[in-house]
Design a protein that fits this description.
The chain has helices spanning about 15-35, 40-55, 65-80, 100-110, 115-120, 140-150, 180-205, and strands spanning about 60-65, 90-95, 130-135, 155-160, 170-175. With about 210 residues, it is of the alpha/beta class.
């Protein structure tokens, strides 16, 4: 019998509950390790830089690929909309959202330029560029952050612990304590939410509880 068409009964049973429990435990353990390394201190640094930039009329530029693209948009929305409480909007822009720009740049130039060209278009000295890459090695993300640094834009990266070259480009590199993509993403979304909360509390102190 062709194994591709075997019936469900013929396949070995997957211990679903054990798998779910293992993944939840892995996520908890990875997030617990955030307390042991430099990520907490780096998150505070990033929040301070973002606060200073936003207070003086700057903005946040966020970008990444795939799931990191969605996370860039998610994080930007927390700033522009609201996070913990109702307050004024904060200037944050996800460079992953404009399909026409992304496809035009990748078609007319190269895919490696999709973020760098947008940084040149929208960035100003004193802004903060936040690059998101689980591997730390995405060429277009590194290119975007490199251009940002050359323009006098503060640079930060959210990444995993695989030792990618992004750490050599970012002023502040928040390395999540995992090399597994899913766990990295779960960690840096938590860290990004904390950064957003710290910025809110700094800029809107009357709401601080």
């Amino acid at each position: 019998m062709d194994k591709r068409f075997s019936t469900p009964e013929a396949r070995p049973k997957v211990p679903v509950e054990a798998l779910v429990r293992a993944r939840i435990n892995e996520s908890i353990e990875a997030q617990q390790r955030l307390l042991e390394g430099p990520v907490m201190e780096d998150a505070i640094k990033l929040a301070a830089v973002a606060t200073s930039s936003l207070r003086t009329g700057g903005k946040l530029l966020l970008f990444g690929n795939g799931g990191s693209a969605a996370d860039a948009t998610h994080i930007a929305a927390e700033f522009v909309g609201r996070f913990s409480y109702d307050r004024g909007p904060l200037a944050a822009l996800s460079l992953t959202e404009n399909a026409a720009s992304l496809t035009a740049i990748s078609n007319d130039y190269t895919y490696d330029e999709i973020f760098a060209r947008q940084v040149r278009a929208f960035g100003q000295p004193g802004d903060v560029a936040i690059a998101i890459t689980t591997s730390g090695a995405s060429r277009n993300v590194i290119s975007g952050l490199t251009v940002a640094g050359e323009m006098g834009i503060h640079t930060a990266a959210l990444t995993g612990n695989r030792g990618g070259p992004i750490a050599n480009v970012a002023d502040v590199c928040l390395e999540m304590p995992s090399g597994t993509t899913a766990r990295v993403q779960e960690c840096y979304l938590l860290v990004a939410h904390i950064v957003c909360e710290l910025v809110e509390r700094a800029l809107f102190p009357l709401h601080t509880r």
